[in-house]
Amino acid sequence: MNASNSIPSGIAVLGGGPAGTATAIGLVRLGYAVTLFNTPRRFAALEGVSGRVAQGLRQAGLDEALAALAPSSPRRVHWRGKESAINVEHLIHRPAFDAALLRDATRHGVAVREARVMGWRETADGRVAITLESETPPFFAAFVVEARGRAAPLDASRVRGPETVSLLQYWRPVNGTATGNVRSAVQSFADGWGWLAEGADGRRYLQLTFDAASADLPDKAHLAGFCRERLQGLELARDFTTDAKPEGSLHARACTPILAGGIAAGRSLRVGDAAVAGDPLSGNGIFLALSSALQAPAVINTILRHPARAALASDFHVQRLSGLFYRFARAGRDFYAEEDQWPQSPFWQIRQSWPDAEPLHREGRPEDVRIAQRPVLCDGEIIEAEVLVTPDRPLGVWKLDGIELAPALRLVREAGTAAEARRKLAEYAGTENGAAHLLAWFREGRYL
Fold first, then answer.
1. Which of 121, 129, 219, 304 has the least C-beta neighbours within 10 A?
2. What is the mean pLDDT of residues 221-247?
């Protein structure tokens, strides 16, 4: 980074979820003044996440949020008419988790404001004017990060997956006592699937997901009864509904996979669900959000400090998020394809063929590996560097354990024997162990 460049005026982050908070903290670490605008979510939710989310939270400096994760608990899966119990996940009580995120932001020096954002626009003098509910004049910033999740406005240039809706409701034990039995389950049925969870307080969170275009859902007044009937037909749901009753209102929320347009445009950048919203089946929503947020500060830093590389940085962000979107979409497609009990169901038909027929992973061959110039993240900014482009990694791989791969591949290809290749790699990597790791990586990917 060129320390002689002055830091532009403040940055506004719209949304205090995992993506917005992680981006805000990353920008503060780069020396920016950041104001985060947040409004509490309208309903309490329980969510399940994988161990990868814990790693992402730690990397982003979200220690309070990390502490809000429940210990891993078992998840039963009833798919293809068979049951398995090999999976685990961490349950998150979103109100507590969201509050922890804001404490993390404040602890790192982010200015947090509870205010509803009504809209924003770029001004003629190169700033962003943000309109807040019940406040005048607007709040001005040098840059805006759109992190309001699915609530963020979408333009027409976007990719939408199968239209999906989830119906969810809390259930409370009739006797009002907690069992301490933290657990979750997933079960498929003819026109959708259900996710069931019980938190440490004994409350059960039951969600049914349907195809919004083909599901024959009743009107709002009869939705709660419809869901109760469906749950009674699910084998795994009986453990969650026995001795329990529904509590509060039933909520319906859109869960359609979306790759937004305008991910990087002008003085704005989208992160999290505002940029890439996946299918709820994967349970990777927070992981995707953190993936976009961990790279966003470097992208913004490059756009603001190094205008000559602004297009390079924007392309890096868009390409990486597009790659993530399709990778997780194909992973979901393959999991949906395993369910073969209802081949005529519109819900399963469309999800077993979307987004395309491209394989999730492509086998590597030496002749398919090439060295190319691509944007990469380096010390808080985006630069261009030589990377290895492979069928399974079309955006390229720059380094392994801090060692650039393109020069290493050249050394191996130029070596006459395996012993010579190992010797050259040891000199390049600095250690025999480093050389062995490089060779193992090349061979595992079938790049040699």
1. 219
2. 91
